[in-house]
Amino acid sequence: MKRLSNRLYDILKGRFEIIKEKGVKLALVTLPNNKVFLRLHKPSKFGDDISKVRYAVTQVNKTHKVIRGFEKGKISHALRNIYPIFDKNGVFLASFDISFDISLIEDKLSKVANIDTHLIIHKDILESRVIGYQGRELKYIKSVEHNDYMTRDLQNHKHDKSYEKNIGSSKLIQHNINKGDKFALYYEGEDEVEVVSFYPVRNIKDNKVVVWLVSHSDSPFIATTLLGVLIVRMIVFIGSLLLVYFLYRVLSQKYILDKRIANQTKELKESNSKLKNLSEYQETIIEGQIKVAIAERDRAQAYAKAKSEFLANMSHEIRTPLNAITGFIDILKDEDIGRKSLEYINIIDKSSQSLLRIIEDILDFSKIESGKLNIDHIDFDLYEEFQSTTDLFAEKCSKKNILLNVNLNDNLPQNINTDPLRLKQIISNLLSNAVKFTESNKNIYVDISYSNEELFVSIKDEGKGISSSKLEHIFESFNQEDNSTTRNFGGTGLGLTISSKLVELLGGQLEVKSKLGIGSEFYFSIPVKLGKNKKEISEASNENHTFNNEKILVVEDNKSNQMLIKIILKKLNLSIQFANDGLEGIDAFKANKYAVVLMDENMPNMNGMEATKHILEYERKNNLTHTPIIALTANAIKGDREMFLEAGMDEYLAKPIDKKQLVLILSKYIS
User: How many CA atoms lie within 13 A of 157 on its CB side?
Assistant: First the structure.
């Protein structure tokens, strides 16, 4: 809008300067909202509301009718001519105000044909200062024509003393001024007859006559005077018409543009309404989808939690009796029993170890599936770990008359850094399958090499092979080549799945090549860094290590496990006292002094962690030397060890009991 106003000013400023010389003080274009669109006399000012200072303009904007007359200003007064502007359809566009400064009119008309002209103004409207068109303050005195009117200082006027004498004493002039109609008269001057004309100007606000235009001249110049006045009015009128025409053109374009904008705004509002409805509909759908997603998430979390709790409970419930089974098998092997009985014991031992492996597979799979399996990168002796793993399967291969070929490449470093437990677990799973599916008088090849910080492992067999249709699913959970595989060879179908996931966790990918009837090759490479040399530290403890009858408190609720632990600890020359739950354990601890406490977790009345907290608090309050507390529990899910250590226990040992590990831990705390 401002740009349009500036453009219009550039077009009209030349014409405005012309009529400005003839007495026009200002030219103002105001929009229907009473905001200024263009000031030709002050183009920099734009957009201000003039409704409080221009009564005449607001009336034209309201009534759409022409208004002419006097209007009092705050500083200067003016004779105003305000025109409404319409488009071709009769729609009101704006008002156009052309104003004449009252002091300027006196000066300009006096120059036309030597006419002596002055204004007399009612005294009621001269309450404020009046500034002339050149910026000087005007001085007004009482007029000779009427007592209620004021005029500028008479010394500026041409008329002689006879004018003041005749006009000032004329009751007829005062009567006609009070009446308010235009009139003229003559009087005899000092040299010639003078003609005086009075032209009334009404106040715009109340329509009362408040200004008179008084002009007088000698009779020979009357025609010239009238012609001069006519010329001034014609110039102003023509200039005004030109301004109005250009204003009409511009404002018509503005009206068309405003109408177009209004239509587009309406269309946009309709579009926005449709979009809003669509958006609300989409939001409803999205909210529904979010609710479904949240419900699915909650169900999935509940399922995962239930599964984790089930697996933890299953692990505990199976490991607890299995601990007794495997423990008593080891004890029976050391007893003097017959050959036949030893054969039966070995069968039971193999079955229990098989059961333990199945449980470990299920638990590992659950840990991997829930993202709870840790990878522990440590430095270790590569040759030692691989040798122990391959030696384990050498005996099995020998029993099946299978030749196990192990190639440890010369470029293998002595020590590397990765997770040795998981690496051995992968190789063991792959070797176990190779031995399982390879017939007698066949070969198994193990090839291990190292290059560019990559460890490469390949296990190739001459077994039954895998059909191409089954290869793409071979690493899926619970998947074996066919149902006969489970019947003939056993297993859970989780070994390859677990191995594949473990390789991924170590940074590689397990791959397979196989031909039916010829054999299979499973291979992978993982990133490993060189490890630091580890000095071998001989452990003083071993299976035959004995202690000095130190007293041990065993908090265990399962009677079979109590019997097993009693036998193991007695063989180690340790004294034992049992407590059947956490509460009994606390009472026993307060009543006696022990070298070590072996603490189970899942017990009636009070569990192991709660009992541990009470014991630690008792020690603290009584300033007692701390007694080591070792968790001996079937809780073997990921995070259990950390959980027990955070509860204040000093060490952790999972069931079934590893006798070597038990001796090692006890040796650590019993000097």
Answer: 23
